[in-house]
Design brief:
With about 140 residues, chain A is mostly beta strands. In chain A, about 0% of the residues lie in helices and about 50% in strands. Chain A is built from no helices and ten strands. Chain B has a single domain, classed as Vaccinia Virus protein VP39 (Rossmann fold, 3-Layer(aba) Sandwich). Classes of the chains: A mainly beta (about 140), B alpha/beta (about 230).
């Protein structure tokens, strides 16, 4: 489970244009335009975060604004403050009441692992998919 | 001197009003149940306000959902211009440049909800024509229309699918001020723009193959239209 300390931060006064890639979890509090590629890691877009980019991540939590396409190999979560314009492709999606979404949701079925049990119907309850928490979230 | 309030009492903190949700049985939705149980993944266009329940309901069944809040998009101030007579007009080219921009014959199902009753008059027919073009032959559209008895203040609802024949309805307000109220303050409620009678509805969907009406007890007609 990523904790706040595990996230690399892009602060709210930071404005990046170009390509962001890495192998650690990332918190975006500022503005990113271009692309974000964290194929095996998680991305959190904070309430003040604004992303206009093509995003490729393992899991994403959106609390701010996103314009672009998101490909999340495991999970995408739109919190109540999220404003998303673009397409989402993922295995699991959670949308809180109040979130605004314009675009396409394409939920790809999980690749069945040998001996793996069928995933639970409720998002975030599958043993193989830990709930992704944004920094500052309280633990349940 | 005690006026208005007992100073020994802490100020009363009123809980935030809960967002009221009403439920209704939907015959139109029940008719769609077989389609939604299809093994083939469907392409569904939801034209209401973002509904987490609808996204969950449809994606859990393996369908793709496209979500567009057309009513909110139609209130974008950038769409408004004035014609030669100084009358307020909506820029259709601008509107369709940003909304319903899909390839032809893409969708199997369109959830139109009560959009036509609240949408600006000038956009209703062009929107239906665009929907016709983005729907596959044989695709289905579900729409709701108020009857005259509903009255001009009939609230605009967001519809959440909770089961194959039950919807939850949540009063929806605009993100923008739509009009000036008597006090000069902006109001954010969508107002019913008109009431369609059955003939109007048939005319509106005259390019479609078939139309089926469902009468309900809450002053709303449900309509299923096949492309």
């Amino acid at each position: 489970m990523p904790t706040e300390a595990d996230f690399a931060h892009i602060g709210k006064s930071v404005n990046i244009k170009g390509e962001v890639s890495g192998t650690e979890d990332l918190y975006v509090g500022g503005v990113v335009e271009g692309s974000i590629d964290l194929a095996g890691n998680n991305l959190v877009i904070g309430p003040n975060g604004q992303v206009r980019a093509k995003v490729q991540v393992k899991g994403v939590v959106i609390e701010g604004k996103v314009e672009g396409s998101i490909r999340a190999s495991e999970r995408a979560e739109l919190r109540k403050t999220a404003i998303m314009v673009g397409d989402i492709s993922t295995q699991r999606i959670v949308v809180e009441d109040g979130a605004s979404f314009v675009g396409k949701v394409d939920v790809q079925p999980e690749a069945t692992k040998p001996g793996a049990k069928t995933a639970a119907a409720q998002p975030g309850t599958s043993p193989g998919l830990p709930t992704l928490r944004a920094p500052g979230d309280r633990k349940a | 001197m005690k006026i208005f309030r007992n100073p020994t009492m802490a100020p009363e903190v009123k809980p935030a009003p809960a967002v009221e949700r009403l439920t209704r049985r939907s015959s139109g939705l029940r008719e769609l149940a077989r389609l939604l149980q299809s093994e083939e993944p469907l392409c569904v266009l939801d034209l209401g306000s973002t509904s987490a329940a609808n996204i969950r309901y449809l994606t859990e069944r393996g369908h793709k959902i496209y979500s567009e809040d057309l009513l909110e998009a139609s209130t974008d101030p950038e769409l408004v211009s004035k014609d030669e007579d100084g009358q307020r007009v909506l820029d259709h080219k601008h509107f369709f440049g940003e909304n319903l921009a899909y390839s032809t014959a893409q969708f199997d199902l369109v959830l139109c909800w009560n959009l036509a009753d609240y949408l600006d008059e000038s956009l209703v027919k062009p929107v239906v024509a665009r929907l016709w073009s983005v729907m596959k032959p044989g695709a289905v559209l579900l729409a709701f229309f108020h009857t005259r008895e509903a009255g001009p203040d009939a609230p605009c609802y967001r519809y959440h699918i909770v089961s194959p024949e039950v919807l939850e309805m949540q009063h929806v307000r605009s993100q923008r001020d739509l009009r000036k109220g008597p006090t000069g303050a902006g109001e954010r409620s969508f107002r019913l723009q008109r009431v369609f009678n059955n003939r109007h509805i048939e005319n509106l969907f005259r390019d479609f193959t078939s139309i089926k009406f469902f009468l309900t007890r809450d002053n709303v007609r449900e309509v299923l239209v096949v492309r």
